[in-house]
User: Fold these one by one.
Assistant:
Number 1:
Amino acid sequence: MKFVTCPSLGRRALSEFTYGGRLEKEPDQESVSEKAWTDYVFYRNGAPQTLKEWWYHRPTGIWFLFERNTLTDRITRVEFANRGIENEA
Amino acid sequence: MPLRLLKYAWKKSEDEPRFFPDEKPLKKAYDVVIIGGGGHGMACAYYLAKEHGITNVAVLEQGYIGGGNTGRNTTIVRSNYLTSEGVKFYDESLKLFEDLSDDFDLNIFYSTRGHFTLAHTDSAMRTMRWRAEVNKHHGIDSEVVDVETIQKEVPYMDMSCNGQHPVMGALYHAPGSVARHDAVAWGYARGAQQRGVEIHQKTRVTDIKTKGGKVVGVETDRGFVEAKKVISMVAGSTPRITEMLEIETPIEIFPLQACVTEPVKPFMDTIVVSGSLHVYVSQSSRGELVMGASVDPAELHSTRSTLDFVEGLTDQMMDLFPFTSRLKIMRQWAGMSDITPDFAPIMGKTDVEGFYLDAGWGTWGFKATPISGKTMAYTVANDTPHELIKPFSLSRYTDFKLVGEKGAASVGH
Ligand SMILES: Cc1cc2nc3c(=O)[nH]c(=O)nc-3n(C[C@H](O)[C@H](O)[C@H](O)COP(=O)(O)OP(=O)(O)OC[C@H]3O[C@@H](n4cnc5c(N)ncnc54)[C@H](O)[C@@H]3O)c2cc1C
């Protein structure tokens, strides 16, 4: 069983969380080009790297942002989504 | 072949030629370099040599032949897909599979079993009908069957699923089969080698070099190798290769796990899949239940196994086959699946001249091994995409021409 330490909730089993995909900055709807939109919707670098990701904690209904390495599976940062690292993406 | 067996008994082991001859030294230059010695790489090499007379070919494999997903899959072969593009493509593959043992003079243990995809909900029933209609339109043996028919074929299955999610019907695909995965890779590899292709194991491609937008060769951990054309056939390692050329794809890597039970006496001849319960199972000729489920929940480049997977899978298995609660799991393993958003592969040319891509095989690429090798060999030899793979080009995402195959994925994702 894998565990993750969350702010205020403490140590929790990862199985309590649902993966919500990568954190990606949505292009501005008004000015976006078709190419930029397809890039946002489909294309991405799938090679091993450290990603910022959405994770949903089912028991509390809280969204978190994890910083996780997709090669080692190590989670290096956990923050509440609403005041977290989202703005940096 | 009892006579041949007798002959073997009198021979010394050194009299028998090795299945694979000793590897030759790595040359400085080849016409074609194939990255990845899985089933697809070997099949492509085989058809390049056999059908196009291109034999100055090297297959470079970082590990050993078939050591990737080819040797890790649950060996299911079928063509009851959902889109016309998919159905046509996989059906050609199935036809090639049927003749492979003869082609190779090697038993690939191709065994036609019949394939049930169970439906437990109204919406699943609707998808089954949809698939059956598309399949029939293309002359593929595929029909929706009722609960009684399933029960007769699979007598040990609890059709009420422990009262949780009763089976309502199934899509039945008579040609659904299993084949020995290693033998498929070995047969293609030997056939390619006999025609002059070189296979270099323990040779890892670390970079791809271009000049003026054109491929000139690959950097390996054994030095630089010149190549006029380079084909990437590395399944779960695709993003690491495309990154070398800064080619963006929609591929994300998710681990896919499988496991087998201890052997039990033969009781189930068919392949049973439940899209809603995320399980699939067949019984091997040794009597083991070979089982799999959906991909792991998050992106990960790893072949580690988890307890979560076995817990989740066995939970569903016990609803379907209650007696399995007494069985032991013998082995568990994982492979890396290269998943695309529309659950169809990415095949053909790229924007880099001389670089070809065969990827996005996710959880479904073993069954495509022969046709993928054949159509990629054609594409590379003629520098034009083969008719069957035109819909699978990388540019389909930019053009919003997706091949929506998700409804035909054998397990839900
Ligand atoms: C558990 C599991 C169950 C599955 N079940 C089924 C099934 O029932 N039916 C089905 O149709 N499909 C199934 N699949 C999918 C199927 O196994 C794959 O899609 C298919 O085997 C891909 O074949 P391949 O030859 O492209 O890749 P692989 O067999 O993975 O070969 C790629 C090779 O490339 C090598 N490589 C990678 N990077 C480099 C490099 N830089 N340099 C040199 N070599 C490199 C790897 O070592 C590997 O040997 C399953 C997959 C898994 C993991």
Note: The mean pLDDT of chain A is 90.
Number 2:
Amino acid sequence: MSEQPLNFSRKGMKSSSKLIILSIVSVALMMLDSRYSAVQKVKSYTATALYPLQWIANQPVYFYRYISDSVQSQTDLVAESKRLSEENGRLKLLLAQAGVQQKELIELKKLQGLQQSGIRISGMATIISNGRDPLADRLILNKGEVSGFKVGDAAVDQNGLIGQITQVHPLSAELTLITNSKMVIPIMVERTGVRSLLYGSGSSINLRYFPADADLRPDDVLVTSGLDSIYPEGIPVAKVLQVFRVAGTPYYRVTLTPLSGFRNSKYVLVLPQKKLPEQLSPASDSAKAKRP
Amino acid sequence: MTELEDFHKRVPKHITISGFMLAMLLDFIPFSFNTFFWLPEFTALILLYWALYRPQMVGVGAAFLTGLLVDVGTAAPLGQHALSYMVMVFFIQQRQQRIMLFSYGVQAMAIWAALLCNQVVLSLVRLMYDHRFTEWQVFIAPFIGALLWPLLSKIMLVILNSRLLRR
């Protein structure tokens, strides 16, 4: 193999100028990432090319889990099965009750001429990577465009809302957690129905503007209000821990804890977005506004 | 030119590239941060290795490319690792001739400085991008990386040697 020895009359750019130019390129990429579709397209091709590598990287984890699952003792399994069948019975009962209520609700909504919008699910996905970065609030899912996922779909885990899909590649997808500082979620208090907005604030979530004249207590559960096209109504998001009245502002100061497991959850359900309602004509809008 | 340099130049390109792939594979394994925060970035280590032993082939440009791949693979903002790897490789390349003369112990110090540089750039980018500072534990990883350096060098030598002997 012939390579030139290191000398001072080397062809090509000097590495310092190369560093400067490529640094500018990478800063530009950081700016354009998630804002410019061509960058995303290239990124998604690269992600598809890297998928085999990610798949192999996940095999040790799967293998470890498989082994640890198989060596679980018999008694554990029996206890688990007992607990599960109990829970199953309880859930079945609840389901039956919910069915009755759902039916009533459908009838009521039909009476009002509103559409029934149940929660649909476009698929289950496994979280295959949480990345090295402790602060990154993005996860990588093992399914993508092929399974019908779209940018903007909401994702839930077993306890509640976990985030939103922000980038879809053919075989994988990127999930941004609700703690991301760019996330805003329309919520309502499950007990009272008061609506507000929930803001991601980096490591946690924040209820910044909850009016102090409305009722809010510790242990209240916040659920999505369904006032947008993204999150279906009624998904639990967070639980209120403490509520303070602060003199001088018309808002409560609230400490919250998110309900979903974030780093601990392994599977997520992806919910497709609602179709946006047809544009209301201004006439019907004003008619609605006049209605008491 | 020393014999060692010549030896590394005779290593075919595909070996170098598969080394990078293996390192990326290790980096993509979804270890949780809470228990594995001390794991160094293997891609960065292998990049440093080749930047030291084969500066004609692996330089700032290669660092940029690998960085972009790692960004996509770990869902980091595109360009973050590219920038930090470039700075790291540039840092080491400016002193490449001198570092090669040192013993493994002193080399490990240089590697530690380079990895720390990498980590600082990563944290700064994160600070700009997200307005948050990384947890301090991430600065443990460069130490471990530097400790692994003599081992990595030995392993690479063994692998490359065995290849050459078989021919």
Note: The first strand of chain A starts at residue 123 and ends at 129.
